[in-house]
Amino acid sequence: MLTGKDLLIQGERNYEAGRIPQAFELYRQAIIQIVDKEDVHQKILAVPAEAPQEIIAIAWQNLSACFRSDAGGFTQEAYPDAYNLVYTFRPTAHGHPQFKGPKGRRLLKAIQISAALTLGLLAWGKGDRSSAAKRYHEALTVAATHPPFNAVTPGLKHLDRTTAFEVQEIRDNLAMLMRNDSMTASSIGSGQGVLRKEVLNAPNARLGDVGGISHQETFVVATDGCGRVGCTNRGVGFKRCSACKKTAYCSVDCQKEDWKKHKLTHTS
């Protein structure tokens, strides 16, 4: 039986020969083999500092790179088995008891962050901006629990370095979604565009999409805007007013400060 390392090496050979779909499938098999039957911590030590050492992380990075590429047709619909594998490692998923101890939890967090980036890019590519923002928010929440992942700093190597760069990409992508939401909400006015998943009639909105600029008849808001007048914060997972369920706030302080005005909008 081929080991996870064997499958990874075969995948690399196929990739170098231009057989990308075959390589993609071998990367998927390598990950499953390691998770199901091997030690997830096994490493290849002779790798540059710019790459992870863990065999499963190398296979994961390669699999994710195919999904994130603009060419090759690596989509959820074309490769459901691989997509489902990535989905089972999203940050909010449970399980994966193979990742034990501090080192195991660190490795699992890195894979979860990478999975969230991949799922976010795939969702954004399909026009599902709100799901992309959700995945990015989940990834940043995980990254905050392990400081080396949370920022690109000098001296980072291997898994810490590759994950930190992914976190930076996630942070940049989420910032782009928030900017687009703010710009579109401002152009429409009338208090619209402040709640995640709100659908706006914005036929001329210019969207910074994964593939560039596009035009759509409607615009689905990806992030919440803080309901306090004067606060420009946007994000995912803002708490809503428990009375009206229609106004979101970025913090308890903003909600308290806005309460005197906001309570007047409640109907009896």
Automatic annotation (TrEMBL):
Pfam families xrefs: zf-MYND
Keyword Zinc-finger on entry: yes
GO molecular function: zinc ion binding
Keyword Zinc-finger: yes
Residue stretches making up the MYND-type domain: 223-266
Domain of life: Eukaryota
InterPro entries xrefs: Znf_MYND
Keyword annotations: Metal-binding, Zinc, Zinc-finger
Identification of the protein by name: MYND-type domain-containing protein
Organism per entry: Mycena alexandri
